[in-house]
Amino acid sequence: MLKKEIIELNEARSKEFCAPAARDERAMYASKHPTNILVFKCMDGRINLPFITGVPIGILHPFRHIGGKFVLGDPYLGRLVLDEKEQAVRQGRPTLALCTYHFSKGDPHRGCAGHKYDTESACRGAIALKKEFDVVFGTNNPAMGAILLGIETDEDSLIFTNEDGDSFSIAENSEASDTEVLTALTRIYPNISKQMLNDLLPLAFGNRAYIRSKKLAGDRPHSELVHGENIICVGRGFDWLHLPNRALIIGPYEYYEHTWRDAIAIAGNIVRSNFENNADLKHSEALLIISAPYRDFEEKGIAKMKADFFYKVSQDALGDNIQALKMEVLVGVTDMTTMKFHQL
Question: Taking all residues of the chain, what is their mean pLDDT, rounded to a whole number?
């Protein structure tokens, strides 16, 4: 039963997250790499940066929406970004925003559906977001920076790039030395601070190790390359859901032509298509997970109200797909200090 599987997964991941060794690992990592990294990415379940970089869970702070489409003028998102930046400043830490886009080198139709499989459109969207950060915070701000980052999903490769088209693909340079990687990133991102650059390197080195291991393992099965999601997640606080290509994750953010309600509806159609076209899902179940995060007791009550609101909006947006997929539902709040999901 999928619902039971996810509840048990969360219990296990929360225990792992709270274990003394894991806490010490995050503390040591943060002391060496203090930059607060925000990742703006698509809802696509194939995109999982902790998995393909080896960075500990809880270090990268994800923001997800269809096509990786965001606008800082969204009152909710804008406030979240400011909160992240201001909290980091109080701690004496810089913040770096990764404005990502994704594509498939093997087949355009394995690319980003949110941009109608148009890689140039996806890249332009990420550039537009990066420029918004530049306008708001400046291009040489030691407290807040933003960069462009591509993700090639066939090989799960990071592509460090900039608006001028200068780029460095980890898959194409998997044998590059640490010095060569540093030289490339220094050239591509001349406006970020040395601290931010230093804290970007673990993502590059971790992805290099991941790519090397995948090359040794041989060709990936086709099922890993195409959409295989049977879970839709709505809200925030899904850092613990470390399941590549299993879940479409949608944050409650607004964009000009795609609201988060639209994104939920599109996610429902994607999952329905997956069940119709992916033989691996023939005997699987579909699940809707709603989560609202909180960090202290005072926030928990509001989080419960948010979760209820997210659920009602999701029901309306998914419409007939709930019945067609016989979709089970999990509604809850997530304690971000423990990654524990509390079902309501």
Answer: 93
Beta bridge partners of 330: 289
| Cβ density class 223-262: b for 16+ within 10 Å, e for less | eebbbbbbbbbbbbbbbbbebebbbbbbbbbbbeebbbbb
Angle (CA) 233-237-243 rounded to 5° is 55
Domains of the chain (ranges; CATH) run 35-221 (3.40.1050), 227-343 (3.30.1330.140)
| pLDDT at residue 279 tops 90 | no
- DSSP string covering 69-137, please? ---TTSHHHHHHHHHHHHHHHHTT--EEEEEEEEE-SS-GGGS-GGGTT-HHHHHHHHHHHHHHHHHHH
In eight-state DSSP terms, residue 293 is E
Each residue of 67-81: pLDDT tens digit? 999 999 999 999 999
Q: For residue 295, what is the DSSP state?
A: S
Q: What is the chain's length? A: 344
Residues 103 and 119 sit within 8 Å (Cβ to Cβ): yes
Q: What are the start-end ranges of the E strands in the chain?
A: 36-41, 60-64, 95-103, 144-152, 157-161, 167-169, 231-235, 247-250, 287-294, 328-335, 340-343
| Cβ atoms of 314 and 289 closer than 8 Å | no
CB 338 within 8 A of CB 331: no
pLDDT score of 220: 63
pLDDT in tens, 187-232: 999 999 999 999 999 999 999 999 999 876 666 665 566 778 899 9
